[in-house]
Amino acid sequence: MTDAIQAIFVTPGLAFSRLGGSSTPQCAYDWVDTRAPRADGETTIAPNWTLAVQPDGSAQPFMPDSVAFRDGDLIRPVAPFYEVWARVGGAGSAPATWRDVPLTPALLQANGLALAALQLKVTARNLKAARRAGNPQLGFGTFPPLTFNANDNSRIPILGVSPTTAPTPMIPHGRSIPLGSVQFLRSMPQPNGEAWSGAVNVETLRFRYTPAAGLFYGPPEAAQAAPQNGRPASAVRPENAFLNANAGWRGTSTSQLVEPGDTYDVINQSQSPDPNLPSPGFGPSLGVVDDTCEVHFEVFLHGGQAARTLTALAVAFVGPPDFAPDRRPFLSTADELNDRSADAGARNTAIDGPDLDRWVADLFQRVYETVSLFNVDAYRRDRAANLPPDKIKPADVDGGARDDPKRAMGGRDGLRNALYKLAAPTTDNTLPLSEHARMRHRALSDLQNLIEVVSLDANRIKTLVRPPFEVESFEDGNSTSMRMPPFMRQSNALPLTLARWQYDLLLRWVERTAADLAAGRLEVVGRPRARVLSPAAAARRASVLARIDATAAVQ
Amino acid sequence: MPPSQPKLFARNVAAVRRFADPSNLLSITAGNPVSTRLESGIGNCFPGLECDLRNLERRFFPFLEMDPIDNFIFLASVDTDGVAHAEAAGDLSQADASVYAGLADDLKAGRSVLVSRIAGTFGVLGPLSLNLGLPALGQAPAIDGDLTIPSTGPGRKPPDAWTAIRLLNEGTDVTLVFVNDDGSKTSTLTAKRARYLDDNGALSAAFLPGELSQSLCSPWTHDFRDCGCFYWASNHPDIAQPLLSPGTPAGQPWNAPVPWERRDRTVRATPPAKATEAPSEPIELRHYEINNRWQELHFVVGGREITAPFSPTAVQGAPFRDLTELLANLNYAAGVELAVAQEYLAAAFSLKPDSDPSLQANPDLPGDVKAARAELMRIAIGEMRHTRVVNDVIRGLSDAGKFEPALRVASQVPHQNPGPFRPVMARAATRQAIDDFIQIEAQSTGVDGLYNNILATLQFPPADVKNRVTDEWIQAIRSVIAEGEDHFETFLNIQEWLSSHSESDYLRALAPPRPPAGNPGDATLQAAYASVLNNLYTGYKKGRFLGADEINAARASMLGSDGVVAKAEAVARQNFLVTFTTPADPRFTPIDPPGVLVA
Hints:
The structure holds two protein chains of two kinds.
Chain A: E1 4-11, E2 14-18, E3 29-33, E4 43-47, E5 50-53, E6 59-62, E7 70-71, E8 74-75, E9 81-89, E10 99-102, H1 105-110, E11 118-126, H2 128-133, E12 140-141, E13 146-149, E14 155-160, E15 177-184, E16 206-210, E17 216-217, E18 289-290, E19 294-301, E20 310-319, H3 333-339, H4 344-349, H5 353-371, H6 376-383, H7 432-444, H8 447-456, H9 460-464, H10 500-518, H11 535-554
Parallel strand pairs in A: 2-20
Antiparallel strand pairs in A: 1-9, 3-4, 5-6, 7-8, 9-10, 9-16, 11-12, 11-13, 11-19, 14-15, 15-16, 17-18, 19-20
Helix pairs in contact in A: 5-7
Chain B: H1 13-16, H2 54-57, E1 64-69, E2 72-78, H3 80-88, H4 94-108, E3 113-121, E4 127-131, H5 161-167, E5 173-180, E6 186-192, H6 220-226, E7 239-240, E8 258-259, H7 289-293, E9 299-301, E10 304-306, H8 323-350, H9 365-397, E11 412-414, E12 421-423, H10 431-441, H11 446-459, H12 463-466, H13 471-499, H14 503-506, H15 520-542, H16 548-558, H17 564-573
Antiparallel strand pairs in B: 1-2, 3-4, 3-5, 5-6, 7-8, 9-10, 11-12
Helix pairs in contact in B: 3-4, 8-9, 8-11, 9-13, 10-13, 11-13, 15-16, 15-17
C-alpha cells in the first residue's frame, strides 16, 4: 500500500537571497577545507552541482569549473531553490513513524492527486519606510498575493505596489517596483547513471525565487544631486524617480521605534555646524526605498487521502551580496536562532569528545575568518574604553611604543598577554594591531595551539572571552574592554558576545582540556608528541624504507 | 569533482526541526550556494543585512506585539482574532481573554500600554522578576527599573529590555504586568515564551511578511556605506588585499590591506593606499553615490579582491607581459630550483647517520631518519631535474643561437609569510626549516606560484611568445607543478615522521657551523660542485641531445664513492653544515627575483 502524504514541508524553511544585477544567478558552492595549509584561513569555497533552469522550466544539473560572482559590471544574484517534501506514513500511523521524502508527481499521483493540487501563494513585502514613518500605507509588495499551481512553470514577476487602501500611494497607480520573480520548476524523471544522479533529484517538486536587481527608487528630487545638502550624487536613477513625494515617506524624520535611527537616505546629509542640533542622519527622509523585500511562500496541497489542505511555509530574506564568501561569521543567524530554541541545552549535551574538538576548532576558524578582514586598529582607536584603575597593569607591555596605554588593548591593559609586545603603526606596517590579531587567531584556529593556551593558563580563555550579554561598568554601546570579541556590537548595540550555547560549549571544552592536561591525557604542541602517524604518513614511511632496503639489496 | 564534506555543523535548529532523518541536517538544497544558508548571515544585527532578528523578540508573548526600547517595553498591538480563536478552542481562559481584550481596548483608545514588570527564566541569568522602566504616568513619577549597566557577575540583571526578552527560555512561563499611560490600571498575563520557529523550522505564522526586515536600513546601502557596528567583516570586509593589476604577481606591495569600500576603484600599476587606523569614511563611497556604484565593490576570496571566477584547484597564475619578462622569470625559476636543492641537501646531510648509536634510543627513530634523509635527497635531485626542464623551455623560447643556460642560483626564494621572498638559507632540518620547505612547495604559493604564472603565460601567451609556445613546453611546466605537489606532500610526511622526536634526537647539531676556510673536505666538495656546474653548463648549452655526454657526466659526478654526495657526507661527518659556494664565474652569479633589487 502506498504511504499516504500526512504533512508537507519546504526546505530550506528560511533562506537568504542576495541582490545582483546580472541575469545569470550565482552557481552553487560550498565551504570546504582548503587543501593548501599555508592559505589564508582553513576555509575556501568549491563549486557544487548547479541547476540551470531550462526554457521549459526544467532543471539541468551541471558542475561549474569555478565560482563566478559577476558578469562584467553586474553581480550575479543569489536565487535560492526551495524543495517541497512530504512526511508519509500509513493511515492513522503515529507521526513519529512518518518518513521524510521529496514530493514528486509520482507521489502525488499515488495519493490520487494531480500536480495542480499543489499551490503556491507568494507574499512579498518591504515595510522599511512604513516602519520608520509609523505608517503602514508606506509598505509595498504584492497586493494581493500571487497564487499559482505547480503545473505552471512560467517565471512569474513579483511587482511591488502600494496597498490598495493607501489614499496617497507612494508607488503611483500603474507603476511598480520589481521585487524579483518566482518559478515552479518542471519535475523530470530522475535518470540513473548521470554524474549528478546521487546528488540532485530532478523529480523533486521545487520552486525558485530570484531577487530584484538591486535598484533604488525615490521621488523626482532623489534623481538630482544637491552638493549643498551633502548629496554630491543622485540617490536614484532618473527612470526610477517616480515615487509620490507626498505619500509620507519623503520628509519623515526617524521614528524612535527603530534603532539605529539614522540609517536611511536623508534630504540633507551635511554635517551640522551646531553640535546641539540632531545629527543630520536623523533628519527628514529623502524618500528613497530599495528593492529588497521579505517573501513568504505558502505551499498548499489540496485534497488527498487526508481530505484536508496541507500547508507549509518558507521565507526568503533579500539582502546584499556576501562579499567575502569564504569567510564565515562566528556568530551567524543560525547560531542566534539556536540560542532562542528550547532544546539548545540538550543539543549541547549531545556534543562531546572529538565532536566537541571539531566544533571548537571550527569556531576559532570562523573567528579568524572574520578577524582576517577586520581593521582592529581603527576600531580600537574608536571603541576602546578608558580602563578603570583596577584593570590597569603597572608596566606597559609595549614599552611606551603605542598611544593610549590605559585604553583597552593598550600597553597597560590588564588583559594583555605580556609575551606579545606590539608596535606603533609605521608607514610600512600601518595596521600592527590587525596584523597581530590575524597572527594570533590564525594560530588559535589550530586546536593544538588552543590547547597550549589552556596548558599555560587554564583560566585565560575564561578571562578573555566575554560571557553572554555581560557589560562592565565602564562600557557602553560605543566603547568596550578588550574582552573577546572586542570593540564589536551585538544586536542591540551593547558589547558583542558569543551566543550562550556557544559560550557554554567553549567553556566545557576548556574545562575538559584542562582536566585532560592535568591527568596527562593530552600533550601540548612543541613537546614531542605521542607517536600517532596518520595512515598516509605511515604508508609513505614504509614505502620509502622498503625502497631503500631494495636498493641496498641489489648493490 | 563535487566538493568534499561541506563545513557545516548539525546545530542549525531550523534544519533540526525540519528533518526526521539526522543525515539530512547538513544537506544543502540542491543548486543553492552556501550563501543562502542561515550560517552565512551575520547573527548580531544592528539592524542587520538580511533580517533583523530583534523583531523576533517583538512577539515573545502569545498574541502580543511589543516594542522593547531601552528599559521600556511598549505594547504595539494585540492579535484579537488569535485570542478569539484560542478562547474558542479552549486554549485560552476566559479571564486571560478578557485581559487581552482590555489591552486591545486601551490601544484602540489611543492609550499607551507598557510592561511594568516581567518575571520568567532568563537563560544564563536564571529565574528573575524584574521591574522595567516607566515614564511618568499620571501622578506617578518615572521609574528607572532594575535593568542597568553594569551587568556582570553573580546575580546580575539584563542591561536592557531587549536583552531581557532575548534571554527568556523558549517554552517557559513568563508573567507580565501591564500598566497604561494614566497609571490607573494594571493587568497581568502569564503564558509560555512563544516559539519563533514552527515544527518544520520555518518562521512562526505569527510573523507577517516583511516583519523581520522592517527595521533594516532604507535603502540598505545607507548603512552598508558606514555602519559603525563592526560586526560584519565576514560579509562586508573592512580591509582586504587589493585587486591585482593585470600581470602583477601577488607579493609586496600588493599584499598590504587596503580599505575595501574605497571610492577610487581605478586599478593602477601601483596598489591603492594602505588602510590605516584613521577613519576611512573620507575615502569611501559616499552616501547616495553607493546606490549607483555598489556593484563595483569587489568580492574577496582568500583575503584578496577578485573579479575573475574563483576556482580552488585551477591555475591561479597571471600571465607575464612579454617574452622578456617570461624569460627573466624562467631564469629565476631555474635559480630557485638550484637554491632549494641546496637547502634540501644541507638539511639531508644534517640528519644523524644511520650508524649513530643514539638513534637506537627510540625504536621509530632510525626508520624515521633514514626515510627523511632519503626523501630529502630524492626531492633535491628532483629539483635538479626541474632545472634541466626549465632550461629546455628557455632554450625553446629563445632566438636561435641566443640561448644561455640558466644556472645562476637564486639569491632569494619565494615565500608566503613573511613574503614575498626570503634569503636562501642552508641549515639543518629543524622544525622551522621543514615548515619553510612545506611553504615553498605549497600550492599557489612559493615555487608553485611562480610556475603558475609561467604556465599561465604559456597558455595565454602575449604576442611575442605566441609563436614560440609548444604543447611540449606547457606539458613540461605542468609536470614541474605536479611534482611540486608530490614534494609538498612529502614534506608534510617528513614533518609528521619527525614530530614525535626532539630535534636533538635526529640532528647532528641544531645549528651546525659552516666549514672554516681551507677545510680540506669542504674544498674538495666545492671543487666537485664547480665541476658539476661546468658540465651542466656545457651540456645545456649544446642542447638536450648534443650535450648528453656532459649532462651524464654531471650526474655521474654526483654519485659514487668519489661523488659530490660522498664528499658532502665527509663534510657533514665533521659536524659542519653542507653548503655550496657559487664559483666566481659570471655564468653562475646569483640571480635576484625579477624586478627586485637586492642590496
